[in-house]
């Protein structure tokens, strides 16, 4: 105990000495009449100092469950279990100590090793936010991050703490210049950030973004790191790898291309994460799903169905999923489903649409306009008292007066679809926040098919090296960008006054990815009714959780229409097409018999077969196997084009 006390004192003594040295330099600099000349000299010296590489960062503490290399080779299953255990353990520790910067770096590294560079980037980005907060007393999270990091540093070996202080004092003495250290900040924290953690943040962020295909951001962070750590071999290597990855691109940018020409998006794994305890067993919860279906239709029920696996990932060639079936005979032209969803989005700032259901608002001054109701606090408008009340009960208070209106609005046409997905995410986050529910447990989200790829086999190599996004050996089909999957969701949460560190169990990159996976397979989009033009890209979008349980066919037995509500109506005429011998075919009669499956259509069924197949490969993940589109010669008659569909 005495010995411990003495060591503490020696750290304190060293810190005091350092502070005195710094203070004397500050005094000197104030007295110096030739301040300008000195400033020049100081700049030169800083430049010289930058030429010396900082000492390599001490390796981060490895959680106790990490398996040894030998154990990994002997038992890959145990290794995989241990890795998932490490994610859970790091997250559990973060729940107790949410502002702990080094712990974020540990978790980021675990994700990277597990082949989740997207999650590694999300976690390293949070470490960067903490690092920026540590630099400025006035920043949100400053006090919490400083307290947590100080406690971590105090647990480190005393010799190392003293060495770091000594090195800083020596550098100060050698330079004979005013200190770069900010007197308002804790000196030891500043030194540890510089010696260890800031460098690791830049390395982790730039490498993981490189592996996600976000070359522009990877380059930005590698370069930012190199401005501080000019000689760092790893950052220099990562910068080289970014340039090399650019060589593989079809429109290859070169080193001198403007930054804006470098791609900043790619694809990542789309899977039910092994630690995700929120995905329901939909087959066991069919009764509950059918209770939800009753609110949209009393003529339909949800059942399990074996579909041909279109992605080729299922070894049996069959994918057991859900589908929608008729509970009674349905006549041609009869309406069979009418569903209202509040999981909607509109990417136009000025369009007159209901905030809740996205229906067009009636014309100003018309008798119908009487029904329109605005929020008294923030003036957001709803088409009816019903929508106003539903929004208040479901999501609006979480967004009211929170300065979120301009997020993802009025974007370039090429960005329109991604903006809509971001806005659907914002709506889901607001629903979760207001309803005090985990975002993946929301009724509007929980039972949606996420089109997840199977988790890779135990022991399978995921990246042949951790140097290139092209070395990944497993399918990655979830579109990913640093902006949409990381920066924007955290920004939205901060606007909603949500502490992103204290709520990581509710709001984190893996949760955003899971929500995006669900929305990407099921959201319908359309142009806004008011002046919407195709060149502006999709403008309104919604996820209808019951509607989207119906599977696709290029010979559908229903049509659908979506204004404020989405409706299924039994087709009055089935599609006709020319078969192999050029003969006109119409496989089925209009009308739906009890027990028959509801065959939805996600694309324009009037498109020619080649375009439908191309669409199906993108949207369903493979060739559509319905009788009309089965691979093989077929001669479709192209007809009218519509501008509405699942995107
Ligand atoms: C919007 S969901 C339809 C509902 C889904 N079956 C479920 O269980 O929730 C779309 C997914 O269903 C499957 N699917 C839909 N239509 C299909 C078809 N004609 N053939 C094979 N799979 C289909 C694909 O996996 C597709 O990604």
TrEMBL record:
This is SET domain-containing protein. Gene3D superfamilies: 1.10.220.160, 6.10.140.2220, SET domain (2.170.270.10). Residues 35-45 have a biased composition (Basic and acidic residues). Residues 298-603 form the SET domain. Residues 61-82 have a biased composition (Low complexity). One of its GO terms (cellular component) is nucleus. Residues 29-85 are annotated as: Disordered. It comes from Zasmidium cellare ATCC 36951. It comes from the Eukaryota. The lineage of its organism: Eukaryota, Fungi, Dikarya, Ascomycota, Pezizomycotina.
């Amino acid at each position: 105990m005495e010995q411990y006390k003495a060591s503490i004192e020696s750290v304190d003594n060293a810190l005091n000495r350092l502070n005195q040295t710094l203070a004397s330099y500050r005094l000197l600099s104030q007295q110096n009449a030739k301040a300008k000349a000195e400033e020049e000299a100081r700049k030169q010296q800083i430049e010289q100092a930058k030429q010396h590489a900082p000492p390599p960062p001490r390796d981060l503490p490895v959680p106790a469950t990490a398996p040894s290399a030998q154990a990994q080779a002997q038992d890959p299953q145990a290794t995989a279990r241990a890795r998932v255990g490490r994610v859970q353990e790091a997250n559990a520790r973060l729940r107790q100590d949410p502002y702990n910067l080094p712990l974020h770096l540990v978790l980021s590294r675990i994700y990277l090793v597990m082949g989740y560079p997207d999650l590694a980037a999300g976690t390293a980005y949070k470490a960067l936010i903490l690092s920026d907060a540590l630099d400025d007393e006035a920043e949100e999270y400053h006090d919490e991050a400083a307290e947590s990091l100080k406690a971590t540093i105090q647990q480190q070996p005393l010799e190392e703490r003293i060495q770091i202080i000594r090195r800083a004092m020596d550098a100060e003495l050698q330079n004979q210049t005013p200190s770069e250290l900010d007197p308002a900040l804790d000196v030891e924290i500043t030194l540890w950030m510089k010696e260890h953690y800031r460098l690791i943040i830049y390395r982790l962020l730039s490498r993981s973004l490189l592996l996600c295909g976000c070359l522009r951001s990877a380059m930005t962070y590698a370069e930012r790191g190199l401005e501080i750590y000019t000689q760092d071999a790893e950052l220099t290597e990562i910068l080289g790898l970014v340039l090399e990855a650019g060589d593989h691109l079809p429109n290859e940018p070169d080193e001198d291309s403007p930054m804006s020409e470098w791609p900043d998006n790619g694809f990542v794994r789309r899977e039910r994460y092994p630690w995700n305890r929120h995905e329901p067993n939909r087959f066991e919860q069919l009764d509950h799903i059918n209770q939800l279906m009753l609110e949209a239709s009393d003529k339909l029920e949800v059942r399990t169905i074996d579909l041909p696996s279109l992605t080729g990932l299922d070894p049996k060639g069959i994918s057991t999923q859900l589908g929608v079936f008729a509970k009674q005979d349905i006549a041609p032209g009869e309406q069979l489903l009418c569903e209202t969803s509040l999981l909607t989005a509109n990417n136009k700032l000025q369009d007159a649409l209901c905030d809740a259901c996205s229906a067009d608002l009636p014309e100003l001054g018309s008798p119908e306009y009487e029904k329109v109701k605005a929020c008294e606090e923030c003036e957001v408008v709803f088409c009816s008292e019903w929508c106003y009340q539903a929004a208040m009960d479901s999501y609006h208070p979480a967004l009211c007066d929170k300065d979120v209106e301009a997020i993802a609005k009025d974007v370039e046409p090429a960005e329109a679809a991604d903006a809509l997905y971001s806005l659907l995410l914002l709506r889901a986050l607001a629903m979760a926040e207001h309803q005090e529910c985990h975002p993946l447990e929301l009724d509007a989200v929980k039972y949606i098919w996420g089109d997840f790829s199977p988790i890779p086999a135990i022991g399978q190599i995921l990246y042949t090296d951790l140097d290139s996004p092209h070395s990944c050996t497993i399918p990655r089909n979830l579109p990913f960008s640093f902006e949409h999957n990381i920066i924007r969701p955290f920004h939205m949460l901060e606007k909603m006054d949500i502490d992103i560190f204290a709520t990581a169990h509710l709001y984190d990159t893996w949760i955003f990815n899971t929500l995006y996976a669900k929305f990407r397979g099921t959201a319908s989009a359309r142009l806004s009714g008011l002046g919407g033009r195709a060149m502006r890209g999709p403008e309104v979008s919604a996820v209808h959780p019951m509607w989207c349980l119906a599977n696709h066919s290029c010979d559908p037995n229903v049509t659908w229409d979506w204004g404020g509500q989405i409706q299924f109506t039994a087709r009055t005429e089935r599609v006709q097409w020319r078969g192999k011998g050029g003969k006109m075919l119409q496989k089925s009669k209009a009308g739906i018999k009890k027990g028959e499956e509801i065959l939805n259509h996600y694309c324009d069924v009037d498109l020619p077969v080649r375009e439908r197949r191309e669409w199906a490969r993108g949207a369903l993940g493979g060739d559509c196997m319905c009788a009309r589109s089965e691979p093989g010669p077929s001669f479709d008659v192209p007809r009218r084009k519509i501008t509405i569909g699942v995107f």
